[in-house]
Backbone:
């Protein structure tokens, strides 16, 4: 079977979009939980304004840093060789993806606790109520802005948003034309999560966070290995299509590791 | 500027939560870059070997964690 250049490009762009969507979805769900907790305890206006202010700060970072990174090989803006950029970005994606994949395998095996959005929401709301009581009704700003709500929503959106920015830039830096699908994937994740949060007004507990992290971890590891390899000068068999083989290989390894870890988890339960 | 510190800590935490795991990955990638001569990197085994090393690091780290929990 002959695979055309267009098909390879489509594969690369498609996997970039899906990987960026999955990875960003996890971060957006975590941010939404905190913004919902802040909004429900302190009021929606300041919480939403804080989240919007953070997004307004983050958007220009993607708009400027992302295209600059992908332009390096075309215009020689810096003396950094492109293969070094690929190697560094690839290494960062491998570190990021392996960390997620390792954690998802350990969670699935029952060796560490699953992330619970409802519990996280309750914990955050309780912390805000406690802070509220200790400062004894902090006065609102001149225009009725709640500094606690604004600050808490701004912080979490900035932190989780910075992680999404990293995801987008890392995927976008892999080659010319990849920033757009990476950005679209992240934007779609943000819209899906924000829309669901707006409609439901409660944390997205039904989103299978660990499964998402597992799948995103597999895809991130595959992308990172591919780009780090390209940066090191590796000639991949089948070119860009090697990403698909790497996804299958990492998935196989991760799925095989689960029963092995479960056996260990059962041994722990038996001891208890 | 507390939030800048929080972001820096979070960003670092994106890549590292188990130091030896992250260290092993970086060492393997460093070896792939520095140790593999350019001529050999054109060989068809270089890519699969890079993957195999990373997969072994993942397997070792996960199983080591599982063993530690069973003790």
Residues:
């Amino acid at each position: 079977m002959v695979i055309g250049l267009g098909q390879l490009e489509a594969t690369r762009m498609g996997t970039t979009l899906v990987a960026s969507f999955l990875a960003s979805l996890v971060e957006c769900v975590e941010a939404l939980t905190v913004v919902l907790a802040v909004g429900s305890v302190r009021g929606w206006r300041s919480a939403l304004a804080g989240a919007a202010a953070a997004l307004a700060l983050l958007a220009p970072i993607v708009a400027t840093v992302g295209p600059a990174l992908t332009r390096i090989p075309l215009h020689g803006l810096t003396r950094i060789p492109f293969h070094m950029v690929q190697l560094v970005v690839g290494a960062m994606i491998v570190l990021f993806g392996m960390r997620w994949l390792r954690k998802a395998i350990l969670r699935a095996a029952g060796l560490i606790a699953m992330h619970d959005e409802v519990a996280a929401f309750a914990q955050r709301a309780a912390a805000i109520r406690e802070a509220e009581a200790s400062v004894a009704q902090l006065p609102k700003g001149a225009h009725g802005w709640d500094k606690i709500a604004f600050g808490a929503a701004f912080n979490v959106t900035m932190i989780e948003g910075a992680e999404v920015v990293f995801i987008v830039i890392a995927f976008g830096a892999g080659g010319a034309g990849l920033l757009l699908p990476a950005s679209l994937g992240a934007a779609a994740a943000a819209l899906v999560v924000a829309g669901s949060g707006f409609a439901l007004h409660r944390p997205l507990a039904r989103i299978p966070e660990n499964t998402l992290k597992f799948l995103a971890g597999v895809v991130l590891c595959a992308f990172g290995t591919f780009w780090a390899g390209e940066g090191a000068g590796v000639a991949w068999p089948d070119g860009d299509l090697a990403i698909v083989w790497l996804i299958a290989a990492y998935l196989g390894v991760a799925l095989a590791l689960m029963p092995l870890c479960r056996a260990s988890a059962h041994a722990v339960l038996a001891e208890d | 500027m507390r939030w800048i510190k929080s972001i820096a800590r979070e960003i670092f935490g994106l890549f590292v939560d188990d130091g030896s795991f992250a260290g092993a990955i970086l060492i393997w990638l460093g070896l792939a870059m520095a140790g593999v001569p350019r001529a050999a990197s054109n060989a068809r085994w270089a890519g699969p070997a890079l993957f195999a090393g990373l997969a072994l690091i993942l397997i070792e780290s996960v199983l080591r964690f599982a063993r530690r929990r069973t003790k």
Remarks:
- Helices of chain B lie at 2-15, 19-34, 38-41, 46-70.
